[in-house]
Model the fold of this input.
Amino acid sequence: MTRAVVAGCGSYLPSKIMTNDDLSRMVDTNDTWIRERTGITQRHIAAKGELTSDLAAAAAREALAQAGVSAAEVDTLIVATTTPDDTFPSTAVTVQAKIGATDATAFDLQAVCSGFVYAMKQADALIRSGQAKRVLVIGAETMSRVLDWTDRRTCILFGDGAGAVLLVAEEGTERGILATHTQSDGTLRDILKTTGGTSSTQTAGVVEMNGQEVFRHAVKLMASSGLKALEQAGLTTDDISWLVPHQANARILTSCANKLKLPEEKLVMTVDRHANTSSASIPLALADAVHHNRFSQEDIIVMPALGAGLTWGTCIIRW
Done:
């Protein structure tokens, strides 16, 4: 059997850090209020002129360097993003040009906060079917560009960043992607959305959210998706070494761990430092865990996510 194995992880966070105290000088909020409700203490904000493709390219270079693979050896490049540089061409082709992935097929994938999991599913299918051997999967966002900085319900939640993984085809291995599960429900689109778009208003719009409804669905759907993916892989919750969920809100993360009957020491959490970086949050958390040597070979890593759409899903990897 051919499996998609993680050969390298990379990340990039803009140098500008916005703390909760910084936000309190812009909008009616304070550090205590934000920490108690979200667990967030700070977020990174892209500089003026710093594009989603710049963040993605930096994360990609680090993943490739860790794997010891050149950009020219990549045959497929997928960028999961909801904040592209331009309406077209895709952010992926811009990243392709910036890193020199001259022989790659490059395309964007849009599933908002679930984008990385959806992209991993596509990459896994390409590798398993023999259509690709080295796939660079990137989650990259400049969410600060679609925020209403006067709305304390949403502007406190998001940040900018990018994470990347290089997946390579390996024969006869037990490592790599074991299972993926994805699902969506468009009847719930209005609980998390932007106020505009290319066709509807000719503007990007800003984020609107019904926080209580998102919380309720996130905990239930991320946990149920995790269980479906485990069943698909022939595993149980007892087999989980690490839970690396979409970093939306600390309470959502701990509630999801509780639903899966996991102790919090098995939960990788970076939302306190990164805030919600949408499709970038899982690969950023993966790269952070790798940097701190938290994973061991053969660890079972479960990565559930939920995003606007609603979209949700889980990717399971044996490290």
Remarks:
- The chain has two domains: 2-171, 176-318.
